[in-house]
Specification:
184 residues, alpha/beta, Rossmann fold, 6-stranded parallel beta sheet, 36% helix, globular, binds magnesium ion, binds zinc ion
Length: 184
Amino acid sequence: MAKHPAVFLDRDGTIIEDNGYIKDPMDMIFYPETFRALQLLQDHFLLFIITNQSGISKGITTAPQVEKVNKHLVELLKVRGIAIYDLFSCPHKTEDNCSCKKPNPYFINKAAGLNNLNLAQSFIIGDHPSDVYCGINAGVKPIYVLTGHGKKHQHEITEEVITCKNVLDASNYIVSYKNNHERL
Ligand SMILES: [Mg+2]
Ligand SMILES: [Zn+2]
């Protein structure tokens, strides 16, 4: 059976504004270009969200609050015709030394195992170096975006990493990359 390529999306600063540790679905603000971006991507890729939510471990948010926000986010995307296959959330902070916090590739590998994914043809989009290195650690191509924390951390990203203005630019890049590499 053919393996599916996927795009792994970061949440805060990539598809919604990074407004700190969001506790309430009402505080969630989508970037206007997110819907078009994900509609483009889902014609070619299975979509997943992987998000670091250390606010839980830090006691700023609770696991049920974060879960409510995540569920609402997936629902709002569904209303726009966008299917998120799965959403993975790490509740830990760096000092917890967990295995699931990006840049660990744990959730990418988990998704790949559950969904028969072709990681070599997959991508990750994110606004933080940990997204880029999560992709590299898992063997998927990273795309760095300059929304959210992107501009602030850009100096930590090596020159070879593809950098895009936002998630729509990243999606356009990914779709044309796929089209160019499809005729084998
Ligand atoms: Mg982010
Ligand atoms: Zn974790």
